[in-house]
Amino acid sequence: MIIVMRVGATQEQIDSVADAIRARGLEPLVMPGQDRVAIGIPASLGNDQRTDLTAVVGVIEGVSKITETSHPYKLASREFHRDDTCVEVKGVRIGGGSFVVMGGPCSVESYDQFSTAAKIVKSSGATILRGGAFKPRTSPYSFQGLAEEGLKILKSVGDENGLVTITEVMSGDMVGLVGEYVDILQIGARSMQNFPLLIEAGKSGKPVFLKRGPSAPIDEFLLAAEYVLNQGNSQVILCERGIIPLDRTYTRNTLDLAAVPVLKEHSHLPVIVDPSHGTGVAKYVTPMAKAAFVVGADGIMVEMHPNPKSALSDGSQALTPEQFLSMMSELKALGAPIASP
Amino acid sequence: MIIVMRVGATQEQIDSVADAIRARGLEPLVMPGQDRVAIGIPASLGNDQRTDLTAVVGVIEGVSKITETSHPYKLASREFHRDDTCVEVKGVRIGGGSFVVMGGPCSVESYDQFSTAAKIVKSSGATILRGGAFKPRTSPYSFQGLAEEGLKILKSVGDENGLVTITEVMSGDMVGLVGEYVDILQIGARSMQNFPLLIEAGKSGKPVFLKRGPSAPIDEFLLAAEYVLNQGNSQVILCERGIIPLDRTYTRNTLDLAAVPVLKEHSHLPVIVDPSHGTGVAKYVTPMAKAAFVVGADGIMVEMHPNPKSALSDGSQALTPEQFLSMMSELKALGAPIASP
Amino acid sequence: MIIVMRVGATQEQIDSVADAIRARGLEPLVMPGQDRVAIGIPASLGNDQRTDLTAVVGVIEGVSKITETSHPYKLASREFHRDDTCVEVKGVRIGGGSFVVMGGPCSVESYDQFSTAAKIVKSSGATILRGGAFKPRTSPYSFQGLAEEGLKILKSVGDENGLVTITEVMSGDMVGLVGEYVDILQIGARSMQNFPLLIEAGKSGKPVFLKRGPSAPIDEFLLAAEYVLNQGNSQVILCERGIIPLDRTYTRNTLDLAAVPVLKEHSHLPVIVDPSHGTGVAKYVTPMAKAAFVVGADGIMVEMHPNPKSALSDGSQALTPEQFLSMMSELKALGAPIASP
Amino acid sequence: MIIVMRVGATQEQIDSVADAIRARGLEPLVMPGQDRVAIGIPASLGNDQRTDLTAVVGVIEGVSKITETSHPYKLASREFHRDDTCVEVKGVRIGGGSFVVMGGPCSVESYDQFSTAAKIVKSSGATILRGGAFKPRTSPYSFQGLAEEGLKILKSVGDENGLVTITEVMSGDMVGLVGEYVDILQIGARSMQNFPLLIEAGKSGKPVFLKRGPSAPIDEFLLAAEYVLNQGNSQVILCERGIIPLDRTYTRNTLDLAAVPVLKEHSHLPVIVDPSHGTGVAKYVTPMAKAAFVVGADGIMVEMHPNPKSALSDGSQALTPEQFLSMMSELKALGAPIASP
């Protein structure tokens, strides 16, 4: 950490900062400059020390700016964990060099709808089946999902088709219930900083699929992952799903594909892209899915509905079965290592 | 709702849209244009009808654009509820023409710290005491609050000083516990779309103080309020607390003060401004608090700490007791009707 | 255009709107609804009519919302110009199905530097040579370019290597000068709404390479193109170069790759991607360049410097010659139709 | 400037950085840490040195992050110019403790329209008359202004009413012409980084009213001012006019009022607020104008039209004469020192 003083800061102010640092058993390094003084702390700070010092020093008169010299996340950082993390679920490897495809409808609507979707997913070579049972909806008047009934359908259909399953869990007290039925717990974009949920998901020991919040900088995204990792759960999968757009005339979000190489560089965790929410428009899903592969993502999550026109949620971004199969062919043609289990 | 077709849309496509509308018992009004056709639905749609139609029509070939002709919120809307809502708690009226001040530290740290703060709040003429017991923190390594111990301190100190109390609740399963100790339930910015929490807060029947999410458009903010109202709980207080900034060099958020007259025009709910989080910098709090008053807010929530340098969280945005009292004087000088109970 | 009235708008207010429409020779279509009235204008409006009506109707009491039913751009729109525009410059086709690569340093620094760069560009199979002579720099203290001396170098080196040249022009009064030396006029992101410049570039008849402004919605981008097209110059090339990011910790901008299929759908103009400015970091350029190809761009513009460490501007985003050649190989391996002239 | 190395950076990489610093005659201060090394440069760098070093060091392997310890602007900074700058034009002082009001229509449409507006401005106690002659419009089909004819009207009407005049200049080559007719040159938001224009405005020696770009961080805004100041022109007036909003449903921009105390703290230049563009909606102008005063602005610029319904541009944000006079009364009631000349 480096503390930069204002031009004209007094010796007393500089001493106050140095004292605050020494009071924590650290040695300040005072760098006199021409206009102003900077004070460095050569030691690597623990996160709690850092937080503490920032608060204390930040209100000392004469301090102009506090700069971190290291990233705030540690367990998620590649600096301390060089090798890629691979999350393995029932033989499906996420992050192990293959390109994993998670497909299925936005919501589980009925056994028939979901079973039809699953068969298409399976036949395409995709290995993970998605479907929402508890749906976070902007309006209280929108369809809210089938709840536990949906979880039961999810589990049956997953088992029948030999597919790994994933669904969203919206609160910490539901982690136990959802975890009984599905293989991977999804934490949605709007829940990225639902800290009680992150902690419970961490404690569950189940693989956690964490979506980036729509206005979350990379550091906040990795700190959310840190909450899960910090509970001793190393099975975290990151998902870029689009950030708030300049406007919503043509797309629902702005898919930040450069986040993929950024995350792969700074973290060892697998990175999945969701081009369905990332664009909100079915016709842009396939090109963005292909782009996700070429920028180095470990896979994609894509919404597909047997009949989008009758979908109870997000119909406008769901691929038809034909479009989904066609996307899979295009991905394979590009060389994506889509592994059938 | 109005559906605009693409240039060159076929008669069959137009008929598909009209049929989908008729299938829901509504009458489409087809408007032929020079280049393209628009199709109106003259009736007022319920929210579920609207959501349903948008999904269905949105995937019909030839549709270019769907426009809502009414706002998506209803219970929160002034269009159907002309008079201002006034939330009254133990004799303190929020939204009833007075200017309410909610003060106190970011976190409850100890009985002494909190009691000292409360005495200053009380002496200033402010009527509501704030303090966090469960703290949502971006990093898992930051101070997380005193939990139930903090709630107990909050309640004792509130009672001792005759102040209404408010604290944040972070998950639906905590609503019961928190509601036992405090008068007003706060839902934080990061929880604005924590739907299970909104529903539980609605069911609790307690006054709910809802903060706007950092990237939430006004419509999404009012739809979050709608979740609470829809549970039969009409005691909702809105809080503008800053949106994501262009950069974070000088302020932590961008306080969107125009949201105050916008919200007052389109909703009947009381509107409070939080200049502490809205700027993140103590020295900008007082000017922005005064601005909140002149633009028509019903009050402010301001962080004040007996000793900001030793604060365990958010020290850099907390006012000192002197600054807090001085802010109160400036507000009174401007004519703010700060009511001592 | 559709005008939606407020709930409770009076008949007189509705008549005012209808009268304003009739006063312009158009026929209003009044649609009574349950709560509120909407008024449609079935005819297709010219842009000036639209602008005029929006202003006039927008201030009539009782009007709640005005919705366009068509896009504000016309000459740039694919609705009225189905076929792809192909800009051909000295035998190089931009937009004609090939994938064009524009390479070269940020700034022309000297004949030697630029000639070295050009030889690498040429040898790679790229066909267009870029280099700045007049540099828009955020700080007045940064290197501002070699001005006309740079243009002369650009022209010589382009001619010697048989490469098409492109450089930025920063003001309308410089269009003539710059046009004497280079083949394609570049309008930078910060100049996207420099209207006198757009008009002069349009009048020049030279191909215009228009970069999207950092906070420009797609409609504003296409309206900027419309300024050039409206001068009778149909040779406009669009360039997505990144929009303002959530934060600048890891990238300088957020490259909005979904803008490529959006622009290709709604406009007939060729679309180029600039992954150098789009990320601001050399190591992310190649993956994003490949992504640009798979999402359907007509080409890329990439910064390459013979020796980035000594670059006078933007060194941190320039590829080395080795990285540039390697990117070209990866693009060819993906199947990009990079045409050597 | 402080350079932070990656964890595991080699001694050779550290030496490369130190050598690059020494090669510029500066002394590096290497701070060994537990995980990583930081390298400080205690001297204050000139802006060109800074730019140069950032580019050079930024591409050295092993460098993780470069942090500035001082702001990039110098002439605009209060650190080196403690006293408030007051721009005085024909006896009207901007920045000298009074609260200046600039009023008038968006566009000069005719002598009658403009003269009527001027009389209202004058009678209200406002001292500066605004009106556009050259209009930057998003669409080429919108009204573009009366050009020189508008300037002539501006000058006549200003003279007749004893008002200081201000109008926008859109390009460097127009500075001379516009400067002949008006007292203050306005540089619009979209031109904030039109560097040739900034330079010409600087050379002109006339007072320059510089609007913040819609996506410009404070540092970029002050660097734009620096371009003008750097030409020896110290008469720069800053204007906050709203930044890009989260969405445009209710307001056209988000007025960033906290920018006022931020700018007043870090710069000595006067700061004006434009609540007309800042909100885009007439009914929000007066509350935001009052807020501008209480947060410490040196004045406001407000659009007023004798008959907004017939305005050729921006009618929906213009106040009527009655609303304008009422706003002036409310400002005076708040204590704003509006000086009649």
Structural class label of chain A: alpha/beta
Multimeric state of these chains? homotetramer
CATH topology of the largest domain in chain A: TIM Barrel
| Count of helix runs of chain A | 11
What's the architecture of the largest domain in chain A, going by CATH?
A: Alpha-Beta Barrel
Radius of gyration of chain A: 23 Å
How do the strands line up in the largest sheet of chain A? Answer: 7-8-9-10-11-12-13-14
* CATH hierarchy, class of the largest domain in chain A: Alpha Beta
Count of discrete structural domains of chain A: 2
Mean pLDDT over the full residue set of chain A: 92
In brief, what are we looking at here?
The structure is a homotetramer of 341-residue chains. Chain A has 341 residues and is an alpha/beta fold.
Please give a handful of descriptors for the protein shown.
341 residues; TIM Barrel; Alpha-Beta Plaits; eight-stranded parallel β-barrel; 11 helices; four-stranded antiparallel beta sheet; homotetramer; alpha/beta
